Amino acid sequence: MDKYLNAFANAFMGSLEWTWKSILFEVPWYTNYFWGLTIISLVVWFLEIAFPWRKEQAVFRKDFWLDAAYMYFNFFLFSIAISGFYKLLALFFTIVGISIESLTILDLSAMPMWAQLVIFFVILDFVQWFTHIMLHKYKFLWNFHKVHHSVKEMGFAAHLRYHWMENILYKPLKTLGVMLLGGFEPEQAYIVHFTAITIGHLNHANIKITWGPLKYVFNNPVMHLYHHAYQLPKGTYGVNFGISLSLWDYIFKTNYIPEDSGTVEIGFPGDDAFPKDFLHQNSYGFGNPKKVKSP
Asked: Over 60: is that where the pLDDT of 64 sits?
């Protein structure tokens, strides 16, 4: 028992110490996700201010500060809180005989670095795309995902407004994706992480970007706005599920962009009864919520 308690405590304290060192600029810049997130957020926000798509939307839009709180909570505070549990999960896999070698289907270590990064990026994005579909398809998961779709005015910080339970679901599946790729992240994986943050921020930003022909590869604000649309195409439980890449939606026919005015209402039926504050939103989804309808 002491072994597991020590593993839990060491993982927790290690995550806490690394985050604190990041704030104090005591870690290499390319692993400083605290200031990386902050700088990317400020740059995309300034782009929103300089080139607003929905010009009537205020600079400090509805729930701006709530979403800013979500960014740092989900990216750092909650990750610190659960870091010990993932260490215990890794130990459990070892005990039951599940090793990285037994799961690896593609060893990246022998490939050029550029190939490692591209494959790492694509595989993890597909895992997240598939997970995102499940969040919409199954009522139990949708009740948690409603937090993200409760946004009523879109802006960059909405990217990281999501229920803490989504971390519980996403993280193990992303970890499984890493294990399938030989159990390690490429040396320059920080490029992938910062790229994903930037694309995610832009997808939610009040900026009109389509990327031209690259729209069939990369997600964009026009496409993602319709993912948040209040009224979905009849007979669907969602559209445009792409995280960083749009290509999965085009391949599996879940793409939908009827127009690009940016005036579509966002949210979901019944969102007027959805909790408006951080604490109640993050306690929502347990039990059998009845006040807010599924899409």
From this structure: yes
